[in-house]
Amino acid sequence: MEEVRFNVIIIGGGLSGLAAAYTLAEAGQEVLLLEKGDYCGAKNVTGGRMYVSLIRDFFPAIWAKAPLERAIVQEELCLMSPGSSILIRYNDADIASEPYQSYSVCRAKFDKYFAKQAEKKGALITVKKKVDSLVFKDGKVDGVVAGGETLYADVVICCDGALSLFAQQAYLQKPLNPKHFAVGFKEIIELAPETLENRFNLLPGQGAARLYMGDVTEGKFGGGFLYTNKESVSLGLVLGLEALCQEEPRTKAPDLLERFKKRPEVAALIAGGQTAEYSAHVIPEGGYDHLSKLFGDGILVAGDAAGFSINAGITVRGMEYAMFSGYIAAWAAIKAAGTGDYSAESLSVYERMLADSFLMQDFKEYRHVTESLNHKRFFTYYPELAGKIMHGLYAMPNGPKARITPTLRRSVGVRNVPDMLLKDLPKVVKL
Amino acid sequence: MNGGKESLNLKAKLGLNVFKENKNFHISVNPGKENDPRLFYAVLACPAGLYSVNDAGAVELSQDGCLECGTCKIICSDEVLTWRYPDGATGVQFRFG
Ligand SMILES: Cc1cc2nc3c(=O)[nH]c(=O)nc-3n(C[C@H](O)[C@H](O)[C@H](O)COP(=O)(O)OP(=O)(O)OC[C@H]3O[C@@H](n4cnc5c(N)ncnc54)[C@H](O)[C@@H]3O)c2cc1C
Ligand code: SF4
User: Fold this and answer.
1) Domain extents in chain B
2) Residue B70: how many CB atoms within 10 A of its CB?
């Protein structure tokens, strides 16, 4: 039987895989993308915000008609303590004007659209097809087995997401450690656009991002998020796996989400809304020190599969890294095709190109942030402290109101707060 | 405590998702690992609540509504679980994501 051979086979039709397929097809390469879902996006979950500003120029033709939900023009942070919360709303004319820096997205819609654009460029996309394993020849990755069929390629790009099964099969990634992962789970809650705009103080079409920290996770490493979509909100939680399993109080993940929804501050926002979907996914958060090896003989790894997600406590970023690393992986494969050399050495250009980019700069910048953030001070102490200060300012007791400073000192119980704050502030601004 | 009520909520929530049937469930506990302590972590962490402790104090895995999130695979490790993705065109199919 004649063997079926492509220039490149891509495993996984998420953002990284689709970005690679689009770029390769545009450059005239024969590329096959295999996706196990019914359509691209069927298996993919995100919180909701994509920083389009970072990747706009790499795919200039896709944005005009892309199914983006709402431009995020309003940034909000809610510090929650057990019985109170403080909401900070930030409006900024720069952020609120075109070209907008970020949009809320729903992956099932966005990925499906992106797949169509890649197909228009000539990429072959086969959905409902699960890749079972890599095929090796003389130590080089030479293709994949999918549904009993062997398909060959000069280069295989693994874009299979956070579980990174194929990078492990190729010994580029170590077995996964719960320490380096978080889980995100969320509901899509449908609300009429006008209701949504009224509740968030938005003009028609505008969007808001609201992040929650503190009691929302019972003080565990992680946070809550709410993104406004066109006709719904994405409401969910992200928690470090270790914190979720081992920190007290031990509350089941789904119960934490119910608890979050029942907070009066949140209940008022989603009242009358209908839940339309419940989804979840793990998120790599090992950072720079736990990325997979990015290349081998005949193989490249991109997106979450490589570990390109940053979870800085309350915000998760991975979508723009997925798209960018897919784009650069495609160029590494195109360069290799130019010389006909698909060895690890030739493909190592991928890592060199990434090294100079915003992606690796971000990963280096965040290298120690997650570690230092993994601290009760951020997720319990500060939110509660803020709550106590506000309580001191606003709550009117039955009787004389005590002066704020002594009350505060008592509730804070720490003399060196200013020192501590000074030390922690640089970390906070990276959230 | 309020486990009963919450888990009812959760079932209803999972019922909103589109699932396509998969003949063989894609996760199983490896023989001899039924009492591994990591399974109890999965009880806490599985967003779909598929792991629960039965009357005998052992962890049971239910098959309906898996979100394929990967949490139990990472927490329990391949030593405890055999975890594969469901076959192509089966399992959960998100409409929003
Ligand atoms: C709850 C949550 C909130 C998040 N919030 C944000 C956010 O606000 N902003 C942000 O930028 N990032 C966020 N992220 C991270 C972001 O979603 C990911 O970084 C991004 O989805 C990674 O894209 P990817 O293409 O690498 O992987 P994925 O999107 O996971 O795609 C992998 C694809 O590979 C396919 N696949 C896997 N194995 C096989 C196989 N064997 N055969 C065939 N196909 C296969 C899968 O079906 C899937 O389509 C969030 C993540 C979660 C879970
Ligand atoms: S993959 Fe996720 S949803 Fe499925 S059983 Fe494991 S933890 Fe639960």
Assistant:
1) 10-93
2) 22
Determine the pLDDT at residue A419: 67
List residues bridging with A295 in a β-sheet.
Answer: A300
Query: Of the candidates B17, B70, B94, which has its C-beta nearest A44's C-beta?
Result: B94
- Cβ neighbours, 10 Å, residue A198: 11
Q: What is the tens place of the pLDDT at every residue in A113-124?
A: 999 999 999 999
- Phi, psi of A380, deg, nearest 5: -125, -55
Kindly report, residue by residue over A39-77, the tens digit of the pLDDT: 999 999 999 999 999 999 999 999 999 999 999 999 999
CA of A174 to the centre of ligand 2 (A): 21
CB nearest A254 (choices: B47, B77, B88): B47
DSSP E strands in A82-180: the ranges are 84-91, 103-104, 124-126, 131-137, 140-146, 149-158
Q: B10-93 has which fold?
A: Alpha-Beta Plaits (3.30.70)
CA B65 – CA B59 distance, rounded (Å): 17
Q: What average pLDDT score do residues A360-381 get?
A: 76
Closest to B38 (Cα-Cα) out of B83, B85, B84, B74: B74
Question: Ligand 2 pocket check: which of B68, B80, B94 to mutate, most ligand atoms within 8 Å of Cβ?
Answer: B68
The CA-atom distances, in angstroms, between A399 and each of A407, A410, B25 are 15, 19, 64
pTM: 0.94
